[in-house]
Amino acid sequence: MVKVSSTDIIAVLRRFELAGDENVPRHIEQVKITNPEPLNTLVSFRYTKRHFYLLFDDNGLDDVDYVLRQIQTDKEDVVGEVLENPNDHLTTYALPFKGKDVYLFAVRSDKRRLDAELAERHPDTSRSTWQKHIKAGHVSVNGVVQLSPKADVTDSDSIAVDTPDAADYSEQTLPIIYIDDNVIVINKPVGVLTHAKGALNDEFTVGEFFRRYTTVGLETNRPGIIHRLDRDTSGVMIGARNAETATMLQKQFADRKTKKTYVAITNGVPKNDQARIDLPIGRNPTAPSTFRVDAKGKSAITDYTTLATDGVISMLQLKPLTGRTHQLRVHMKYINTPILGDRVYGIAADRLYLHAHKLEITIPTSDRRTFEAPVPVEFEKHFTVEA
Q1: How large is the average pLDDT for residues 196-208?
Q2: Where are the alpha helices (DSSP H) in 136-222?
Q3: Are 57 and 128 found together in one domain?
Q4: Would you tell me the crossing angle of helices 127-135 and 114-121 to the nearest 10 degrees?
Q5: Are residues 191 and 305 in the same domain?
Q6: Which residue of 49, 122, 143, 288 is most buried, as measured by CB atoms within 10 A?
Q7: Which of 107, 122, 153 is the last residue of a domain?
Q8: Which active-site residues does the annotation give?
Q9: Ramachandran region of residue 125, left (φ > 0), alpha (ψ -120 to 50) or beta?
Q10: Per residue in 45-97, pLDDT tens?
């Protein structure tokens, strides 16, 4: 018999990589402890609205059938799976904890949301993409089109998917700055997505444009893609036309061997004409699609230089030395000069005034090259552009 607290349960979930430091014992609910046999302990609980079991048992010997029999003493018709121990390089289930082997069982409810069921059956497509398919009328349950992603389904339901043919973007184009046998460099316009976020690709993206020029990633939504620009950011993007070049370029970005220069217009005036911002960035737990300066985040470094100011707004040259998501936008907000038109971290305008102006990188069969996308004419409404 083992004494088990909510703190112990959270600790085990962390070991199984289902909980993080932000999760605390109060997130564990409806705990029930039984002893199917004299020398083991079974714990039933709920976490993130899901039902789990922990079995503390040194006699399990990594036998899934044995573990299931112990759990069935609490719920005879239970459906689910014993989760693998992610800390073991071999495929095992037992995880050592406080001198005992512990097994984690995730219960699968007879009824599940339609979008969740589709995401599990087709893991290459995200749940959010399935939600779009459902709302668009592409999914039927038992022969009836279902428009609600929240609809309950069971294993006995017949689910059919009828997705439309892929859209034809062959007539759409993007401005090419440079192209050879290995790379393609474009000036991405504001509003164009770098790549689709799921299987439901309902708009023209940089990835779809690169698809005509590359042999890399053609089975994905990211053909030729090496790095990203946010939808609302314009400027230089480089793509790879073959696998060897993709590896070469990706390594340069990963090793910080590329040099990126942006031009931005900000609300406010920086305290110093030029400075380095060395502040880590992490995901904002209260708004998971956004980021913030966070001592526990990943290292993020930005150099800036003030090119011009009228005392109300400023034009800055920004040089990120790292490549964190939303890095420039978060850093500018933190020093009280949010980028003009930043609907997430600042105040909306006719566009996000952030432009990837230059990219210095080494490409195959060539010396170091700097590719440049002219600063958009919209910037000249505010300042004469000489960047």
Answers
A1: 77
A2: 206-210
A3: no
A4: 120
A5: no
A6: 122
A7: 107
A8: 230
A9: beta
A10: 999 878 999 999 988 888 999 999 999 999 888 888 999 888 766 668 999 99
